[in-house]
Design goal:
The chain is α/β, with parallel strands linked by helices. The protein has three domains: about 220 residues, FAD/NAD(P)-binding domain (3-Layer(bba) Sandwich), CATH 3.50.50.60; about 110 residues, FAD/NAD(P)-binding domain (3-Layer(bba) Sandwich), CATH 3.50.50.60; about 110 residues, FAD/NAD-linked reductase, C-terminal dimerisation domain (Enolase-like, domain 1, 2-Layer Sandwich), CATH 3.30.390. It has 13 helices and 21 strands. Strand 20 and strand 21 form a beta hairpin.
Length: about 475
């Protein structure tokens, strides 16, 4: 079967499906190829969405267990129904994947389920999940195949006792001891889920700090709060082996810089040391496309590869591996192909860790500014001085604003606290429009809200906070 399109997208994750929808909306005949049986990619099926469902469910459980007495609410026996919690997660995923199917139908995007492989310029061969083969010709190919977990050398993931994030979302019981290898976003989010549900959790990190790339001051406060919640940390430590021959796993570790080895027993080990671009078996070699030493496809400012008519977005190119970054690139690219002139400001792309409290950031960190030798002012405001936080009892954390010392242009905002992921949108918008910290400070914020802490931190950048 030969079919002709204006755009063929390989991959239906947040970048791919959004690119396909926008291209179709702009009048381009569009197909999207997906190797799974459902649309949405890693994010929707086994990543962002199911993990956030479990995070919220586990927070509700922990609050019911420990968090309501101060508000005058006394509960009787609280029981965990893990099967029901996992069913809720699966229901959310199913509803959202069906939602993308609806959006494809609404916008006249053709869904093709199977493995897509580039066979030449403007040519994609699909080995269908139903056993059929289809050859697609197209003016434009968008590679949006996302990423996969980075394996830990010598340790085989079985998704039962030694798991990736995929297996950690579907454990059939709460482990007695969960060892998390890697103190990045994924490991800490899933570690807090199972800690709240009753597991002992130990996080092993090769570096001497958690969440590399995060503002150092925020990371230190974050670790203190997680430790207070019961997570244990072994920093500057590497996992050398996991023995699965017995009833319990035996995890061998040693200091990253060398030293005496140690062992500990665990029921489940979660390998969460990062993700790598999924660019294998896509036929890149047939058109002469090469990847860098990280497996990423090189693109120019317009997301075009070195081969005319072939583009790449999301996790397969350089930049943060974030769903919303891929979405922005998908819209940008579809509009470029349609002849428009959109833009992306990579300085205004926020990042969020959905623990409790949440951690969110946009723009530069203090570490970045020091390294670049940029003079800056700092404004900070603690949630303990915020009236809404006091009312709800969620007083942990602070807002930190960084502004250029000469121009006052907003350079970065970092928030650790309840609902930080929502509050960071205000800061992202301010950076997108080139606002100053004074602009942020002089914007009227509703009272009483958590967002007032953003205003106060901006005031503090000028030494003029009102409530501390």
């Amino acid at each position: 079967m030969n079919e002709d399109y204006d755009v063929v997208v390989i991959g239906s994750g947040p970048g791919g499906y959004v690119a396909a929808i926008r291209a179709a909306q702009l009048g381009l005949k569009t197909a999207c190829v997906e190797r799974r049986e459902t649309l949405g990619g890693t994010c929707l099926n086994i990543g962002c969405i199911p993990s956030k469902a479990l995070l919220h469910s586990s927070e509700l459980y922990a609050e019911a267990m420990n968090g309501m007495n101060a508000h005058g609410i006394k509960l009787g026996s609280v029981e965990l129904d893990l099967d029901a919690m996992l069913d809720h997660k699966s229901k959310v995923v199913k509803e959202l994947t069906q939602g993308i199917e609806f959006l494809f139908r609404k916008n006249k995007v053709t869904s093709i389920y199977g493995h897509g492989r580039i066979t030449g310029p403007g040519a994609v061969h699909v080995e269908g999940n139903d056993g059929t083969n289809r050859d697609l010709t197209t003016k434009n190919i968008i590679i949006a195949t996302g990423s996969d977990v980075v394996p830990l050398p010598g340790i085989e993931v079985d998704e039962k006792r030694i798991v990736s994030s995929t297996g950690a979302l579907a454990l059939d019981s709460v482990p007695g001891h969960l060892v998390v290898v890697g103190a990045g976003y994924i490991g800490l989010e899933l570690g807090t889920v199972w800690r709240r549900l009753g597991a002992k959790v130990t996080v092993v990190e090769f570096l001497d700090r958690i969440t590399p790339g995060m503002d150092s001051e925020v990371a230190k406060q974050f670790q203190r709060l997680l430790s207070r919640q019961g997570l244990g940390f072994m920093l500057g430590t590497k996992v050398t082996s996991v023995d699965s021959s017995g009833d319990r796993l035996v995890v061998a570790t040693e200091p990253a810089e060398g030293g005496d080895p140690e062992t500990m027993k665990a029921d489940v080990v979660l390998v969460a040391i990062g993700r790598r671009p999924y660019t294998e078996d896509l036929g890149l070699e047939t058109v002469g496309l090469k990847t860098d030493n990280h497996g990423r496809i090189e693109v120019d400012a317009n997301l075009a590869t070195s081969i005319d008519g072939i583009y790449a977005i999301g996790d397969v190119i350089a930049g943060p591996m974030l769903a919303h970054k891929a979405e922005d690139e998908g819209v940008f690219l579809a509009e470029r192909i349609a002849g428009q002139r959109p833009h992306i400001n990579y300085e205004a792309i926020p990042a969020v860790i959905y623990t409790a409290p949440e951690v969110a950031s946009v723009g530069s960190t203090e570490d970045d500014l020091k390294q670049a030798q940029i003079s800056y002012n700092v404004g900070k405001f603690p949630f303990s001085a915020n009236s809404r936080a006091r009312a709800t009892g969620n007083i942990d954390g602070f807002v930190k604003v960084l502004a250029d010392a000469e121009t006052d242009r907003l350079l970065g905002v970092h928030i650790i606290g309840e609902d930080a992921g929502t509050m960071i949108a205000e800061a992202a918008l301010a950076i997108e429009f080139g606002a100053s910290s004074e602009d942020l400070a002089r914007t009227c914020h509703a009272h009483p809200t958590l967002e007032e802490a953003v205003k106060e931190a901006a005031l503090a950048a000028h030494g003029l906070p009102l409530h501390i």
